[in-house]
Amino acid sequence: MTMHDGMYDQGGYNPHYQDYDYYEDEGQVQYEELPDPFEKPLPVDHELLHWHAEKVLGRPPSAKIGNNDCSQDFTRNHQRKLAALVTDKKATMLPPLLNELALFTRAATFGDTADLFYHSPSDRIASNYSKSAETNPEDPCKKFSSPRKLLEASLTASFNGQTWEQFDALKMTEKADMVKGFPDFLTDQQRAAVADAIVRYYYYIEVGIRDDAVAPLKADWPINIMQLVPSQPPRNVSQQYYDNLLRESRREMEDDYLFSMKKAIVDYTLQNPFERQRLSLEALEPLIEPPRPRSLARGAIPEQWGIAVDQARENIAWTLQTLSPNALELSSLWKNFQNKLLVDVASREFTAQNPMDMESFQAFQTEVCEKTKAALWTVWVPKSAEVFRRTPPLYINGDAEAYYMSIAILQSNQLRHLVQDSMDNYKRFFALHELSADAMAPDPLAERLMWSCEPAFYMEVKVVNGSEYCFVPSFREVEEMCVAFLETFVTAVGGIPRVGSASAAPSRRGMHIPAMGLKEDSVVTVRDYVRSILQMNSTPPRKLAALYDRYLFLLSMDKEAYLTKFQSEKHTLEEYAAEIDKFKNEIHQVENTSLDAVRTGLYLLLMGNFKKILVDNAAEIVSRLIDQVREQAQTSNQEISEKYATMSSEVMRVPAIGEEVLLLKKYIADCRLDHEKLMEEIAFNKQREEFLYAYATDMPENDCGLAYHTYEWPKRMVVLLKDAADKSNTEHREFEDALKKRRSQFSHQLKLYQESISEFEGVGEKDLKKEEKGHSNPRDKFAQQTNDLSQKLKDAQVEADEINFQEALFGWPKTKYNVVGQMVSQLDPFLNLWTIVSTFNARYAKWMHGPFASLEPEEIEGEVGEMYRKMYKLVKFFSGVSGGPELGEPLKVANGTKKKLEKFKVYLPLISAVCNPGLRERHWSQMSEVVGFVLAPDDNHTSLSKLLDRRVEEKMDQLQELSDVASREFSFEKMLDKMQADWEGLTLELGPWKETGTHILKGGPIDEAQALLDDHIVKSQAMLTSPFAKPFEEKLDPWSKKLVRFQDIIDQWLKCQGKWIYLEPIFGSDEIMKQIPKEGMAFRTMDTTWRKIMIRVAEDPVMLNVADMDMLLEDLQMANASLDVVEKGLNEFLDTKKMAFPRFYFLSNDELLEILSEAKDPLKIQPFTRKIFEAVKEMQFEGANNITALYSVEGEKVDLPAPVDPHASNAVEVWLGEVEAAMQEALKKISGAAVDAYVGTERSKWILEWPGQLVLCCSQIYWTKECAQFIDEKGAEGLKEFEAKCTEQLNDIVNLVRGELTKLERATLGALVTVDVHARDVCGVMKEAGVNATTDFKWLSQLRYYFADGIITVRMINALAYYGYEYLGNSGRLVVTPLTDRCYRTLMGAIHLNLGGAPEGPAGTGKTETTKDLAKALARQCVVFNCSDGLDYLAMAKFFKGLAASGAWACFDEFN
User: Fold this and answer.
1) CA 986 to chain centre
2) Is there a contact between 803 and 746 (Cβ–Cβ < 8 Å)?
3) What sections of 810-943 are H helices per DSSP?
């Protein structure tokens, strides 16, 4: 059987286990009931000994002690030496320190033997405050206290290796000398006693207490200590030495623990004066100093106090639950978990992985947390339950709920300690990274030793959006993750079931062990601390990243645009080098700004990838710039090679003509100049190569080959040019010789042509007769000869021009070949003569002997006429009349041919009559009757000569008359055929109309059809009135009627389509259909007709077929009649709406219908708000679509006095009228409030607190009032003072304008300045005029505002107008001039007399603006209408209705 030390406190008996002796026997726990031997309270004073160092040492505590004296080894050895002075013989004579026969502990003291109940000191709870304490001869409050070790008092004692007997045999003075360091007030005897007591004191510590009386060192303490020691030895220390050092250190630690515990027991025992007396250690009492005074007064304790303490002790004994055996076993069970943590931020395994990314950190800590959590659920929870299953609990006072509640609190405290320890570790982990002021500045190149621990997390700078950078993970993500994990492990121990929760009443207590909550101060403190550390550590990374801000242009710049622009600017190589060096320097700066991985406290900031992107961007630009130079060199070399190749091929080309020789020589000369330029380009390309070599750029093999080939060209080109020049000179001479020969041959040819022309002068009738013997047609022969000669002369002219061109090329004077033109002129009469003779001879046979039906009268008449005119001129030419010589033979031929033509012209009327293409069968019958034989157009045997043989020409007049009639009839027939042909292929084009499911006519084909109809109807009706149309009247009359019908169809159709398009969306609204159901049904019927028509037309859209469709015209007419009825009903319906809300008169019908169609949803009326209320941009809808305020175009808001509910009436005209009334009421109410506030508020502040319109109005009210007061009181002098006041107010506004103002406030001040300036000027004018009374005309003629009984009135002279309270927003005002005032007076007088005004004047003088500004001054709605030719009495009536009903003004601009 072994005793459990945990059941006892340091001083002995534990009062809470007074009824049981707890022991273990063969693995089972048993309890034996024991009597309580104690009756009195136990003492509570457990204070340690406090030695007065100055008394012990004989010198002040601040006196320096040598290192040799105070080293730990020296101190322990000296203590042992002092203890060893007591021999075994002497030890048997000393009283024992502890009562080893005590029942309850192995470290029990003897106590006061005179005490009736013989309580030990640890049993004397509150004994110092009992009644007996008042009569205690020795103040028990004096405690043996020594924060210093007793060894310090014995440092001056030197026993020189003596034994106790030798020491004891020393004389008293010798012993006193050995402790000479004590204070002088001690006698030698006292000093000797102190020396003796010190020896026995250390004997009791070293020998007087057995080791088993000391509670053993807990097993986990050395383990925890060793975890703080590195596992590997430091550098230059061997492993064996390091292991021996650790073993020795652990032995010293255990020895120090044992010594400290024994010394604590001795010091505790010596607190009691009875123990000091029993142990004969009273000699130490002179060294005792009283403890610090207590706040509780001594010696005045009431008598009932002891009774209360006894009662409290008894209550505690009978209600304290947590010291039951089950609770102690639970406490013992928790020892296995008290070193566990929910987080691991200090182990070697964790620190070895630092730094780590956030995912790894979270995974690692989650695993630690889950392991601990699993241990709690799988080990601690089951074993805790097993304790109560194995040992049924004994409830004090039978209160099971209190018992289990106390157990739950015990376990809750254990879990809370677990969470708190975990939070402390977590906090210490982040505390390691608390930054000093120096550490807040980054160390990008690790030049300073600032960090005492490894960074915890990786963080990388990454590029986002191509031109920005961010931290991955972000600081917010890190903060949220770290805080989230803190909250995770805080809540990880929640939900553990309470022991006995199945038997406890769940309604009174929870079923789970209370755990630490997230809102507790300790959690909040750690959370805030972690956040603060994380936020602190965000500064160095940001500062480090900020070092790269000057390089961010490398990310954001458009490389392509930059490179393209740079290349287009044609930079020099020096400029390229400067630009490349600039970017290379940026690369160097980026690479050397920081390391790739920089320590910034908590984070190891990874900059490598970010730097690489910056460097790559800059390097790409450098590479592309170098490539531009390389490409320029490559392109230039390519162009140079191509130019040289072209030059080489051109100079070596063999010229075919002289022109090419000359061009070649010029080209060779140009090549010499180009060669020089190309040499300069080659030299520049060589500089480019040197530039590329300077930047260590390898040129591609193709570029190298091209460059080598290009650089070889100049040498080759010099030789080629020399050879080409020699060759071209030779060829030049050869072509000159050839040209000379060509000129000679051409001159000889011209002589031959002249001879041939001369031969035709003698050709005539005799030659025709001579040739007829051997040639069938000599006329054709001579015609052919003249034609051939004419062609030769044309060729000769070309040859002459070519020779002249060649002569010009060679620089020769041009040879004149005028003879060619002369020969052409000489040949032309003969050419015309023989051509006409040949042609007429051939035509005559055909005309006279061919079928007459094949003759074309118009063609024959034209040809004969042309021949006769030419022959007439030839007769004159050949006869010499025109000035030339007479040519007899050609003249005879010309006269003969002329006579034949004259004779044939006689037959032309007959040909026209009988060969008319308009002749029809009826005409041929009539002609046959006239001539007396059958004439038929298909008679191929009757020729003109046969008709002449039958003397048809004698019936010429009758035939001509018949032919004329046929011609007129034929023209009508052709016209009708053409009209019908024009309509062939014409179709109507239909297009779908929005989402109606039907079609409408498109305009293009309709426009074309209407143009044809207009033309064809006129023509067809004119033809019907002509007698020549009688033969085809049956065809013409239906055609005319079809055209007229089709025109009516088109007209009705377009009319119907226009109205249908207008009305279809209107009656497509259910709201409109509900309000005018009769018209809606009529429209639906018409709509059905329309859709049927469009379906029929879509199936056959040919226009002529559409014109013949049955009932199409009638259906359209009926549809239009229905639409007229619908439109009339709709207009009447709209008139009712306009009468209900007169402002609708100023909207178009389309706008009004759209508003009415959207009446269900008031929000859809918003787009029309400004057309209804000119200055209101939109209405504010709140709640159930209630209108609560109005917003002006400028954004000014005016709250309505009461919300307007559109759904109350569901009629748009009603709730809009309510909005109008609410608007006017709001302005009236606000104006009254503004007038009242003007007096009590500084004007500069008042201006900014009210709507702009009312600021102007109310300001004018007070101007009128104050100005009248000054006039009445002081006259002109008063006006002078008031003018100064107005100026001061203007200066205040100017100061406001110079400050910070909103857009609305500036608009208000702008308009107010305009009004105030005019008001001040009026004061000045009246002052100069000497106005002394308010009845003066100068005052009465001003626009004056008055406020009385909540109503604003405006006066001017004797005219009175009421303020209209129309909201006009925060708009500007017109600058008032004398002419403006005159207009105001005129218009105000007209208003007063219920008349209208008509300002007249040149354009741009402000007539319209003045009228509008007066409307603003009176807060009236003013509708401006720009008149045009379309303005009729109906439109005017509409306007006047609206004006009369709404009270608005209308300005008809350009009415004249």
Assistant:
1) 55
2) yes
3) 818-849, 857-878, 888-905, 908-914, 921-931
Write out the two tokens for 361: 């950190």
Burial 1175-1186 (b: 16+ CB within 10 A, else e): bbbbbebeeeeb
Kindly list the distances between the CA atom of residue 1256 and the CA atoms of 624, 1115, 1315, in Å, as whole numbers in the listed order.
67, 64, 7
Rounded to whole angstroms, the maximal C-alpha distance in the chain is: 205
Q: Could you tell me if 556 and 467 are in contact, meaning their C-beta atoms sit under 8 angstroms apart?
A: yes
SS3 for 459? Answer: strand
Alpha-carbon distance of 108 to 269, in angstroms, equals 9
For the stretch 706-740, pLDDT in tens is: 777 777 778 777 777 777 776 767 666 667 677 77
Burial class (CB in 10 A: 0-12, 13-18, 19+), 549: exposed
Position 1266 scores a pLDDT of 92
Cβ density class 1100-1115: b for 16+ within 10 Å, e for less = ebebbebbeeeebbeb
Specify the pTM: 0.44
Triad 788, 793, 794: Cα angle to 5°: 95
Q: Which residue has the tokens 């209208």?
A: 1396
Beta strands in 509-622, from DSSP E residues, in sequence order: 597-599, 603-606
> With contact defined as beta carbons under 8 Å apart, do 986 and 1102 qualify?
yes
Strand bridging mode 1359-1362 / 1449-1453: unpaired
Label residue 743 left, alpha or beta by phi (over 0 means left) and psi (-120 to 50 means alpha).
alpha
Q: Alpha carbon of 1008 to those of 39, 983, 984, 1050, 1103: distances in Å?
A: 133, 10, 13, 12, 11
Asked whether 344 and 364 are in contact (CB, 8 A), the reply is: yes
Q: How many CB atoms lie within 10 A of CB 707?
A: 23
Confidence (pLDDT) at 1150: 80
Which H or E element spans position 462?
Answer: strand 457-464
Report whether pLDDT(1311) > 50. yes
Task: Please say whether the dihedral angle defined by the alpha carbons of residues 403, 409, 415 and 418, taken in this order, is positive or negative.
Answer: negative
Question: Residue 957 and residue 1421: Cα distance in Å, rounded?
Answer: 88
Strands laid side by side in the 1176-1182 sheet: 1176-1182, 1186-1192, 1197-1204
Query: Is the pLDDT score of 854 beyond 90?
Result: no
Report which of 790, 753, 760, 773 is spatially closest to residue 894, judged by C-alpha positions. 760
- Tokens 């055996």: give the residue: 325
Residue at token pair 């013949």: 1108
The separation between CA 1167 and the C-alpha centre of its own chain, rounded to angstroms, equals 28
- What does the pLDDT look like over 683-696, one tens digit per residue? 888 888 888 888 87
8 A C-beta contact, residue 1227 and residue 1419: yes
pLDDT of 600 strictly over 50: yes
Buried b (16+ CB within 10 A) or exposed e, 1406-1415: bbbebbbbbb
Q: What is the pLDDT of residues 425-473, one digit of tens each?
A: 999 999 988 888 888 888 888 887 777 788 999 999 998 887 788 999 9
Answer yes or no: are the C-beta atoms of 959 and 914 closer than 8 Å: yes
**Helix boundaries (H) for 1141-1211:** 1149-1157, 1169-1172
* 1397-1456 pLDDT, tens digit each: 888 888 878 888 888 899 989 999 898 888 877 777 887 888 888 888 888 888 888 776
Q: For the chain, give me the number of helices (H) and strands (E)? A: 51, 16
* Alpha carbon 948 to chain centroid, angstroms: 101
Contacts of residues 724-731 at CB distance under 8 Å and 24 or more positions apart, as own/partner, are 724/651, 724/652, 724/664, 724/668, 725/665, 725/668, 728/655, 728/661, 728/664, 728/665, 728/668, 729/665, 731/654, 731/655, 731/661, 731/664
Contacts of 792 (CB under 8 A, 6+ apart): 753
Nearest CA among 28, 54, 375, 269 for reference residue 183? 54
Cβ atoms of 1427 and 1388 closer than 8 Å: no
Q: How far is CA 305 from the centre of its chain?
A: 80
For 712, what's the count of Cα atoms within 13 Å in the CB-facing half-sphere?
Answer: 7
